[in-house]
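During the reporting period the student researcher (J.K.) took over the structure-prediction task from the postdoctoral fellow and processed the backlog of single-chain submissions. One of the processed entries is reproduced below for the supervisory committee.
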Amino acid sequence: MTTETKKDNRAEQQARSQLEGIVEMVQNLDPEKAREKAAHEYAKNLSRQRCEEILRDECSIYCRSDDSFDELREAVAVNIADKICEPDGFDFDEDSARDEARDRIMEDPLSVQVRSGWRDPGVEMDPEEFNILLCTGGPAVRITGDLDLLNQPDTARLEYQDWFEPWEPLYDITAEEQQALLTYCQQFYLGD
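J.K. obtained the following C-alpha cells:
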C-alpha cells in the first residue's frame, strides 16, 4: 500500500466517521429515537432486582427466573421506549431532548459559510451555496451544497481531503445517510 493510498484511506475514514456522528445527531432530533436511546441508557444502570420490579409492578409483565439479565434490561428499555411504563428515576422531556439535539448540531462544525455566484456590480447578492467545515488539518472534512430560494440547503455533499490534496466527495452514501446529511445542514440558518 502506497503512502498516497494510506492518506486517501485516512481522509475517507475521517469523512465516514463524521458521517456516522451526523447520522446519530440527526436521529436524536426524532423524539421517539431519543426516548428509545434514553430508555436504554436508563435500563443499562439498573440492577436485576430493579428490572424485575419495574417489569412486574410498572409494566405488568411476568419475569421468568431463567431470563438473562440482558433480556430483562432490554425488556425494561423496550417497555419504557414504547411508553408502556415510566418508572421513577426515568426522566424524559421531549422538548428538552429535541433542544439538546439541535444544540449539539449547532455546536458541531468549526465554521458555517455561504457564498453567491457571479453578479453585475451593484446588484444585491443572495447566498447560493454553503460550506460547513467539520474538521480541518490532515484530514479535513466539509459539507457543501446549494441553497434554495429561502436560503435552506437543497443539496448536501460530504467532501474530504488530506494535506495538499484536492477535495473529494464521499461516495457510497446510503439514502438514509444522505437524508441525515441534508437534515443536519437544514438545522442552520443560512440567510442574511
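The committee noted the following: The mean pLDDT is 87.
J.K. will present the remaining backlog at the next meeting.
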